[in-house]
Design a protein that fits this description.
- This protein is mainly alpha-helical.
- The two termini are 16 Å apart.
- It has two helices and no strands.
- The longest helix has 32 residues, at 35-66.
- The mean pLDDT is 86.
- The protein has helices at 2-24, 35-66.
């Protein structure tokens, strides 16, 4: 469970950082990314972060009860 949670956290961080990087470089080529798409991508990244942190916490609790 912790591996899946870590993967979700990593994917969420990469997605959010990619959206921020594209929006920062949008000044060079305006209109490259639609604001709605950027908002949805950031929301998906946030959801992945929350799910990943939940998975990490759940995995930590499961190992504490086993050992």
């Amino acid at each position: 469970m912790q591996r899946v949670g870590f993967s979700f956290v990593l994917f969420g961080l990469v997605l959010i950082l990619a959206v921020v990087a594209v929006l920062l470089t949008d000044g060079l080529a305006p209109g490259r990314v639609a604001p709605g798409f950027a908002a949805l991508a950031a929301a998906l990244g946030g959801l992945c972060l929350v799910l990943g942190l939940y998975g990490l916490e759940r995995g930590r609790d499961a190992t504490r009860h086993m050992g």
